[in-house]
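Record type: monomer structure entry
Structure origin: computed from sequence
Chain ID: A
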Amino acid sequence: MMKVINGDGLILGRVSAYAAKQALLGEQVHIMNAEKMVISGDRNAIVQKYVKRRSQKNKANPEHSPHWPKRPDLLVKRVIRGMLPWDKPSGRAAHHRIRVYMGEMETKTKPVEFNSSYKKEKLDRYITVLELCRSLAYKN
């Protein structure tokens, strides 16, 4: 079975937790419009948090440092990876069942409908994933 999620206007953390849980249960999860997902909170604080994450380096061996991408679809997939048990084979297998796309995709499956707690309507402070990535020097 395949779950399709249209990320347009949805809160990144809530959708990521849902996607991670479904992937752990054995479902294929496809997320489209990843660049239109939102992160709630103060814009400057969010940007500074991700700039700090991207600058963390292991001084002994920089290749062993955590990798945080600039591209919106890869950033969303990395956030979902943080919600999976990466050290277990089930977590890695679940990560391989997740696909994240920028823009619309053709599918026969109807996207999953979420309630209002997953949507940005009640938020007054947020930043989209695309705006965050552009502030991290992403050029599209």
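Annotation 1: Helices lie at 12-24, 43-55, 72-81, 89-96, 129-135.
Annotation 2: The chain is about 35% helix and 15% strand.
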